[in-house]
Amino acid sequence: MENIALIESFSEFKDDKLIDRVTLMAILEDVFRNALKKKYGSDDNFDIIINPDKGDMEIWRNRVVVADGEVEDENSEISLSEARKIEPDFEVGEDVSEEVKLIQLGRRAILALRQNLISKIHEHDNTNLYKQFKDLIGDIYTAEVHHVRPKAVILVDDEGNEIVLPKEKQIPSDFFRKGDNVRGIIESVELKGNKPQILMSRTSDKFLEKLFEQEIPEVFDGLITVKKVVRIPGEKAKVAVDSYDDRIDPVGACVGMKGSRIHGIVRELGNENIDVINYTTNTQLYITRALSPAKVSSVKIDEEKKTAEVFLKLEEVSKAIGRGGHNIKLAGLLTGYELDVIREGNIAEEEDDVELTEFSDEIDGWVIDEFAKIGLDTARSVLKQDVADLVRRTDLEEETILDVMRILKNEFEE
């Protein structure tokens, strides 16, 4: 088989792998040099001439002519009689260049060449893939569900690249079927052996930030800046936004008329509750805004300890803490302060109040825990709440809440 025919048979990989001919030729030279080293012990005295335009290459072996019987290294030396078979007027000491046909390497070597070429091209593809997705880290990416596993969803993009969405990087309410399109951010690219593993995340704070960029034109254009995002995926998020243009209301622009702009983002995140607040360098005001929807009476800050005492009226405490403590936790993460709620209220009432744990003989412990999760740990704090609101904010049935309130009322009526 002539060199050009053999190379053309190898070049089928170019079309399959979308690899350019020049790169393919460079890989071919590397592969052939390895084959020459195996057969002759060294490739130092070989010239490989590649013509990428024609898809042809030539291999030339360079040896020095020595007298018959004085050949010490058959790879770099050739006897005079052998040299004169190539060209009758060669003399001792002259250089002989002889073309090596690939078929001379032997059938086994050619098979090994082909296998080595496949390996090198895969290695080249993996390197390019690694670089491509390394540049995409932190960006939103869309891919299709290929199959669903217990610990991960395997996605495939338009180019056939495999992307892994681990279970812990999925929003708790996520449910995927084969063929679904999934959006997330490229969180990391890791080399597993020689193959890159691309990991996607839908729980990252960065995903929500990028959704704001994608869905809200003023954020995309840089008129509004997303200063910080904190999330409890699938439950609640807080986003601090700012604008250098006083004519723009950053919160209004992000939320839209009746929530029209943010609705798509909320839906993408499995109905995650998103609070958008105006960023400010005024720490007291920032903490007050971060604890929305609660109305804060005052804030006392300890800059050294990075803590803040937040004073609220009794009826505002549960709003500040939020269901499962999510609101106060996210407010702390957003502002960078550890927040401590201080109740304000009628002193006589507070002194007359009773801890819920005192009713453990009449109210189940898990029910008391449900109230505690939303900041209600005394009898009066529960009695001040609206029943429908408690049903919404806890995992308790209306009948259970009414029963608890009856028990608590009896305590004060007695």
How many structural domains are formed by the residues? 4
Mean pLDDT equals 83
Helicity range: 40-55%
Which CATH architecture of the largest domain?
2-Layer Sandwich
The number of helical runs is 17
Termini gap: 106 Å
How are the strands of the biggest sheet laid out side by side?
A: 5-6-7-9-8
Counting DSSP E segments of at least 2 residues, the number of strands comes to: 15
CATH fold-level label of the largest domain: N Utilization Substance Protein A, Chain:P, domain 4
Cα-atom radius of gyration: 36 Å
For the sheet with most strands, the description reads: 5 strands, mixed, barrel
CATH class identity of the largest domain:
Alpha Beta
Structural class: alpha/beta
Strand content: 25-35%
Shape by Cα distribution: elongated
Poorly predicted ranges (pLDDT <50, ≥5 residues)?
A: none
